[in-house]
Write a structure and sequence with these properties.
single chain, mainly alpha, about 75% helix, about 0% strand
Length: about 150
Amino acid sequence: MQRLKNKQIILLAFGICTALTLTTSKVNASSFGAEIFCTMRDGGNDHESSWDAAYAYIKKQKGGLFKVSPKNAAAQITETVIREKEKFSYCVEYLDKLHPNRKLIRDLEKEEERKEKEAKEREKKRKELEKELEETNNEISENFDDETLDRYSY
């Protein structure tokens, strides 16, 4: 009985230590990821290279079975910049690029879908017209025999 209780205490202590370690590394990763992003942007680098460097670092530090999504990493960077305003006051202007205009993206996707649908409808109508034309040509050729078409027969 005593042995089982000791094992449970050891497992509980191990679980708590693991959770604290993972949480601390996540906070440090997002904080340093924000520092990477903001420093590179402030240094004159473009958004893409700054974002790639910060995201790669956050992804690498997260470890584990599941990787951090780009959306989640952007949220972590934004959260860190907002939480530590004094430290990252110069970086607030760069945050808009981390979260692109979702409405614009949705509108562009809808427009793309509409164009694809119209193209399919045009193709379908074209095939129907070709089929009708072929049927009409077949009917005409059946109605006229060779004698009717002979232009020199008076």
